[in-house]
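step 3/5: co-fold with magnesium ion
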Amino acid sequence: MKPFVSVEGLAKRFPTPKGEPLTVFENVTFGVEKGEFVCIIGHSGCGKSTILNVLAGLDEASEGAVVMDGREVRGPSLERGVVFQNYSLLPWLTALQNVTFGVGARNPKWSREQVRAHAIKYLELVGLTGGAEHRKPSQLSGGMRQRVSIARAFATQPQLLLLDEPFGALDALTRGSIQDELLKIWSETHQTVFMITHDVDEAILLADRILLMTNGPFARVAESVEISIPRPRRRDEIIEHPHFYRIRNHLVHFLSRRSRGLAGRREGRPVAPETIRFEDEEPRPAPGRPRLAAVNE
Ligand SMILES: Nc1ncnc2c1ncn2[C@@H]1O[C@H](COP(=O)(O)OP(=O)(O)O)[C@@H](O)[C@H]1O
Ligand SMILES: [Mg+2]
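step 4/5: write tokens
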């Protein structure tokens, strides 16, 4: 059976004056399961935003298709919510109105009170209360604006959330606290999320799986790294987990070396990324499991 979102042999090519088109990426093939949080990492220019925009229905691929829930994506839809790096809030509306606007459009039968209560719940989840919800975007800090964008995207409850480096423009401290808010809101909703980031620590904290892209031209998704660190995860505890540095080193090594080495190597056909999974070196018996002797007694 197909995964919830199925990306099948996607390519993006641009015409050039010389005739031979420029292939940014090709044979990009992967799936996203329902409720999964998937991050994608790769060097600037390899085509991550283009892939996200094709998933959103905002851009067209040169080859291949995206199928979501059995139907091909052909244009934008309320079933797919997008958060960009440069806050796409409506400047003439307050934070609250920015959220109710989307919630009302998505749920036309709801009463005003229902819409408002739902929007406030999501603003609270991202820590935006105490009057800030009545301010306009220009009166909010960058971090607060991005909180509103995230609240709006989650509150409209699309089937798929697409986040394009949503914290890229924020300072490290603000980014850390919004990552926490994002984890909180996601643990409530278990939405399906596809997120671009260039921050490996952020990806390990948030993702169930990280897709690694080689450099362009002819970029592709080469690996799918499973993040075998149990949830709930906390930023200050995750580094203690025995898998953390093994995963982190793998990602950093891919980005610093292998993404270039694998670049330009053409598969010629869509190939699913190789699955990378870090297991415990020595399998330990699960705590509390009865010993064999005890079972036989
Ligand atoms: N009109 C165009 N003609 C040629 N190349 C383009 C055009 N538009 C975008 N590109 C190229 O497509 C590539 C992919 O861009 P993008 O998806 O934004 O990458 P990323 O998000 O990974 O940084 C870039 O290398 C860019 O130079
Ligand atoms: Mg980009």
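step 5/5: annotate
The chain has two domains: 1-76+160-166+194-280, 80-157.
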